[in-house]
Write a structure and sequence with these properties.
There is one protein chain. The protein has a single domain, classed as UDP-N-acetylmuramoyl-L-alanine:D-glutamate ligase (3-Layer(aba) Sandwich), CATH 3.40.1190.20. It is globular, with a radius of gyration of 20 Å. It is an alpha/beta fold. Helix 4 packs parallel to helix 5. About 35% of the residues lie in helices and about 25% in strands. The protein starts with 6 loop residues before the first helix and ends with a helix. A nine-stranded mixed β-sheet has the order 5-4-1-8-9-10-11-12-13, with helices on both faces. It has a four-stranded mixed β-sheet with strand order 3-2-6-7.
């Protein structure tokens, strides 16, 4: 598949790409500590020596991955007029991410996921969020902003990163896809359950296994690749999706596009934390597809990228240098 591929030349093309990322943003908060004893009040561990760390999550993590690969991300989302919303703006400034695509909704709560971790052991997660769809007024403001960014030109692709927190409403999904067709900008989607079947005529659709079986109401096991392939092809035809990429964690990825239906096994790794791997996969897939890789090549490179970030604790973006090194080692040795 990659016998003559010059990965350095392909990766260098990423610097010319500008990606619009639309979806739910959040703060990923980590409370790192150590467990030395069990509480006398209840059979639960006591975490001491806690260090708190805040990171950008959700669609903002996709933006960080796009930036880490050398491209230019423009993040479009809605945050609350609250302390968490202000924290997102501060974290974006620290990461040199533009806030030109953000809308502030006075009636919305900014999502925060707090994880309590001892060593590499994930003990507990607390979610504070609002997942109702944006109201009509905010939707209109948000759509006008997105349309102006698209119509100004220079956007190479749109990533719709859906975390089911309400930013990607049926109307937003429909109108963004409609405008993308008019301005000839490809759309790539990382879906969730609520709006699973609303994404039609997109360039790439990337559910994970859980999202696929729940979204389609399937009773299929992860290792039943042939059954999965048939279900994917049927859905792909029904939705008029050009490329479909399903991530299967320890079973690798399944891709369907360009007349190819390929299952790529996972690379064996020491898995620490799977959080954020899907964000990395969609970011690398978008950049690779625009750079001219075939669907199978896109799936293979994205598979490596998703695996690499699983080796680290917490939600972290991919490393351009490390991914390039592994691509050269892994594919040239096959």
């Amino acid at each position: 598949m990659f016998e003559a591929t010059d990965f350095k030349s392909v990766f260098d093309q990423f610097t010319n790409q500008k990606i619009l990322i639309i979806g739910d943003v959040m703060i990923d908060t980590y409370l790192w500590g150590s467990v030395g004893r069990v509480s006398p009040e209840a059979p639960v561990p006591i975490v001491s020596g806690v260090i708190e760390e805040n990171r950008l999550g959700g669609a903002a993590n996709v933006a960080l991955n796009v930036k880490a690969m050398g491209a230019v991300p423009i993040l479009c989302s809605v945050i609350g007029n609250d302390d968490r919303g202000k924290l997102i703006l501060e974290l974006m400034e620290e990461q040199l991410l533009s806030d030109v695509g953000l809308v502030v909704d006075n009636h919305r709560v900014t999502t925060q996921k707090t994880r309590i971790i001892s060593g590499n052991q994930h003990l507990l997660r607390v979610d504070e969020e609002m997942d109702i769809f944006l109201n009509k007024r905010v939707q209109e403001e948000f759509l006008e902003l997105i349309k102006s960014l698209l119509e100004s030109g220079g956007i190479d692709a749109i990533i719709m990163q859906d975390y089911d927190k309400g930013v990607l409403t049926p109307r937003v999904i429909s109108e963004v896809i409609s405008v993308s067709e008019r301005v000839a900008v490809p759309v790539l989607v990382d879906p969730k359950f609520r709006s699973f079947d609303l994404y039609k005529k997109v360039k790439l659709f990337k559910p994970n296994f859980k999202e696929l079986v729940k979204g389609l109401g399937l009773d299929i096991k992860k290792k039943e690749i042939e059954k999965l392939r048939k279900a994917v092809q049927k859905f792909q035809k029904q939705q008029q999706i050009e490329n479909l990429l399903v991530t299967l964690s320890d079973q690798g990825v399944l891709t369907s596009g360009n007349g190819e239906h390929v299952h790529i096994p996972a690379v064996k790794r020491d898995i620490t934390d799977v959080s954020g791997a899907g964000d990395t996969v969609i970011a690398v897939a978008a950049l690779s597809l625009i750079a001219g890789m075939s669907p199978a090549e896109v799936a293979a490179v994205s598979n490596l990228a998703g695996g690499q970030v699983c080796e680290k604790a917490g939600v972290v973006p991919i490393s351009w240098e490390k991914l390039l090194e592994e691509c050269n080692q892994h594919f040239k040795s096959q």
